[in-house]
Write a structure and sequence with these properties.
single chain; 392 residues; alpha/beta; Aspartate Aminotransferase, domain 2; Aspartate Aminotransferase, domain 1; 7-stranded mixed sheet; 5-stranded mixed sheet; 14 helices; 37% helix; 15% strand
Length: 392
């Protein structure tokens, strides 16, 4: 049976692995070496050296990630932001113009709005829901369009099919951050995107113990990305490669549980009188619910919501929680909650955040793999109407 005909549950375990196994080891050993003996390599990129992301630990991960996302090639990086910035700086040069979806992760927003300009690269924001408005933002020097498959933290889903069609018609390179969906729920390269990026710190690793990133796409584009990453120095160290490799093998099991659990929690929250609204694409009330159904095989482990009573109510809820941890980041085995206004989006001016719909009291939840019933019971007691301002 060919690797591409196997189910994702099988491919996440076996794809990309070395055969025969090194010394018979079931687990990939850690090659804790920065330097390797010269073996007649003809180009600089082929010389075996840790900064060039071509140690055995790197190469196995590259093959596995490319297989899972349906790409020809992949490269891993030292963080999600290293992957995102390297991808953008690979396809954009001084004088180029970028189209960017509104409502991005705060780190991506800050890099695009604060740093790209210093490289002579301009940008314009587009509404991912209004395809008819995108052409008006085009310039003769527009080279790429950048979106997220699900936005952070409002969990919006742009018109991804229209983005791919628009990019092809206009000769643009299409890039999507697929961190929230993962290849379990959505494989954007199969839809026609040129590059897919991940913060592998999150779901791909899944254990909140490393920072890592990934870029996946065609062999031609990935050769350029890998070369750029080598120049920027954003490689992943071998031990972190080992941990990411290990974490990936439980990705499907974790995501399948998180898909189900997050939807149950979202439905509970939506029915609670102390909650004003909930953002989760699995809810029928979500504005892009039908689009999400047609695109995704699961709705993901992320949700956000607003309690009635504003920031005071949000803080009271966080203080009463017992199981979830109040911490930034997401995608781990433990449920994490945070106020994006003070963490992931703290770098965005308040007026801009509010315009996008990210209020000071918005709570983002990353559902872990705890028992769903226990999480709902904990959320219920934390939303106790007698102690949460604004409850009724």
């Amino acid at each position: 049976m060919g690797r591409n005909s196997e189910k994702l549950e099988t491919r996440v375990i076996h794809s990309g692995e070395l055969k025969p196994r090194i010394g018979g080891a079931v687990n990939m050993p850690i090659f804790q070496s920065a330097t390797f003996e010269y073996a007649g390599e003809k180009t600089y990129e082929d010389v075996r050296y840790v900064r060039l992301s071509n140690t055995p630990n790197h190469l196995v991960l590259h093959r596995k990630l490319a297989n899972l996302e349906g790409g020809e090639a992949a490269v891993i990086a030292s963080s999600g932001m290293a992957a995102i910035t390297t991808a953008l700086l690979t396809v954009l040069s001084s004088g180029d113009h970028l189209l960017v979806q509104e409502g991005l992760y705060g780190g991506s927003h800050s890099f695009i709005t604060e740093d790209l300009g210093r490289f002579g690269i301009s940008h314009d924001f587009i509404d991912g829901d209004r395809a008819g408005t995108w052409e008006s933002k085009l310039r003769p020097n527009t080279r790429a369009v950048y979106v997220e498959s699900m936005t952070n933290p409002l969990i919006q889903v742009p018109d991804l099919r229209a983005i791919v069609d628009f990019a092809r018609r206009k000769g643009l390179i299409s890039i999507v951050d697929n961190t929230f969906c993962t290849p379990v729920n959505f494989r954007p390269l199969e839809l026609g995107f040129d590059l897919c990026v991940h913060s592998a710190t999150k779901y791909l690793n899944g254990h909140s113990d490393i920072a890592a990133g990934a870029v996946i796409g065609s062999e031609k584009l990935l050769q350029q990305v890998k070369r750029q990453l080598g120049h920027l120095g954003g490689m992943l160290d071998p031990h972190a490669c080992f941990l990411l490799h290990r974490g990936l093998k439980t990705l499907v099991l974790r995501l399948n549980h998180q898909n189900r659990s997050a939807l149950e929690v979202a439905r509970f929250l939506e029915s609670h009188t102390a909650v004003a609204w909930v953002n989760h694409p699995g809810l029928e009330s979500h504005p892009q619910h039908k689009r999400s159904q047609s695109l995704f095989s699961g709705f993901g482990g992320m949700l956000s919501f607003e309690p009635r009573g504003g920031l005071e109510a949000s803080n009271a809820f966080l203080e009463k929680l017992e199981l979830p941890l109040i911490a930034p980041s997401l995608g781990g085995v433990e449920t994490l909650v945070t106020l994006p206004a003070t963490t992931s989006h703290a770098g965005i001016p308040r007026e801009e955040r509010l315009r996008l719909g990210i209020s000071d009291s918005l709570i983002r939840v990353s559902i872990g793999i705890e028992a769903t019933e226990d999480l709902i019971n904990d959320f219920r007691q934390a939303l106790d109407l007698d102690s949460v301002p604004g409850g009724r």
